Automatic annotation (TrEMBL):
Gene Ontology MF: a single term: ATP binding
Protein name: phosphoribosylaminoimidazolesuccinocarboxamide synthase
InterPro entries found in the cross-reference section: SAICAR_synt/ADE2_N
Superkingdom of source: Archaea
Enzyme class: ligase
Sorted UniProt keywords: ATP-binding, Ligase, Nucleotide-binding, Purine biosynthesis
Domain SAICAR synthetase/ADE2 N-terminal: 22-276
Cross-referenced NCBIfam families: PRK13959.1-4
Pathway per the UniProt entry: Purine metabolism; IMP biosynthesis via de novo pathway; 5-amino-1-(5-phospho-D-ribosyl)imidazole-4-carboxamide from 5-amino-1-(5-phospho-D-ribosyl)imidazole-4-carboxylate: step 1/2
Record bears the keyword Ligase: yes
Length: 342
């Protein structure tokens, strides 16, 4: 079980072969690395499943290998293509790889032990991030000057900036508090998986999602992928190109999990500040799990906010898929409801 989806294993992976299993998408959500939040967003899980399936199928059609095997209908056992699904699916069949334990003492993580157990069949312990824009508040602004990213300006402006070329970054996957890595650090953590090949795959995924988004009237701002490594081949894993993994906008309005993040920043400031303080304290005290130092818990959201978020996910998925798979208002109406949350 992750914070937003259940994980089923039908046949476990070994050092010599991939396994078989499934993701079952829930309506749970997570922000600020907290894990499962108090509420559910109706139909969120099915929208993520449908968007992820559509992207995996498009990647496979372009010759990019993935761990995807199809979606599983509620009343079925065998995976089918998304086009054959009459109702929004919530289960995605996938191939499985190995995920060894990552030993640590405080915040010191032993990646040598991870790879000793992993062999040549493992989930690469990295998140590969691609950025097409640099919005106000982006951490990229604090980690580099505009000229480092091909921008002809001396300082970051008080508005979002489009990048001339997507920026690819690497961050940790299994550490309690994720951190951005230098290319050399990422190369070491990736093990046998080639860092250049991982970047190439990330750029290919970004191009595909950006194109699909544009055809739906959406702007694809940034996102991430995870990858399996199996006997020299890289497979795109987890879920790709959804409103949780990526940030999209429509007519200048964010359409992603960022909407809920920003709502918490406005309405639950005490909790958001406590999260930031706990992360800082954990780093200073060399504590892996910062949550045990957090002095506040998040509160439930109003029903109106949950319904607005649900419409965002459902309407956005319909637009992205080019198909009325969900019972949802037009995307323009859902966007106006999101704007009213401000």
């Amino acid at each position: 079980m992750t914070s937003v989806k259940e994980f089923r294993v039908a046949e476990g992976a070994t050092s010599a072969r991939l396994g078989r299993g499934a993701f079952v998408f829930t309506d749970d959500y997570s922000v600020f690395d907290w894990g499962k939040m108090p509420d559910e967003i109706p139909q969120k899980g099915r929208s993520l499943c449908a968007m992820g399936a559509a992207n995996f199928e498009a990647l496979e059609a372009e010759g990019i290998s993935t761990h995807y095997r199809g979606v599983v209908p509620d009343d079925g056992d065998e995976p089918i293509p998304l086009a054959e699904a009459e109702e929004p699916p919530r289960e995605m069949a996938i191939e499985l790889t190995q995920v060894p334990d990552l030993p640590h003492e405080g915040r010191a993580y032993d990646y040598d032990a991870f790879h000793a157990d992993a062999g040549s069949n493992y989930l690469v312990p990295l998140e590969i991030v691609f950025r097409n824009t640099v919005p106000v508040g982006s951490s990229l602004r604090s980690r580099g000057e505009p000229s480092e990213y091909g921008l002809d300006m001396e300082s970051w402006p008080d508005e979002s900036v489009d990048l001339p070329e997507a920026v690819i970054e690497f961050s940790t996957k299994y550490e309690e508090s994720d951190r951005y890595l230098t290319r050399e650090e990422a190369d070491e953590i990736a093990g046998e998986a080639d860092i250049d090949a991982l970047e190439t795959v990330a750029r290919d995924v970004n191009d595909l999602v950006t194109g699909k988004a544009a055809r739906a009237g959406l702007v694809h701002e940034d996102g991430k992928i995870e990858c399996c490594y199996f006997n020299g081949e890289i497979l795109v894993a987890d879920v790709v190109g959804t409103f949780d993994e990526n940030r999209f906008s429509y007519d200048g309005q964010q359409l992603s999990k960022e909407v809920i993040r920003q709502y918490h920043k406005r309405e639950q400031q005490a909790w958001v500040e406590a999260v930031s303080e706990a992360k800082v304290r954990a780093q200073k005290q060399d504590v892996a799990d910062w949550r045990e130092l957090c002095e506040h818990d998040p509160e439930s959201l109003p029903e109106t906010v949950l319904e607005t978020a649900s419409e965002m996910y459902r309407s956005g998925a319909n637009a992205y898929l080019g198909r009325d798979l969900f019972d949802a208002p037009p995307l323009s109406e859902a966007v106006e409801a999101v704007r009213d949350l401000r």
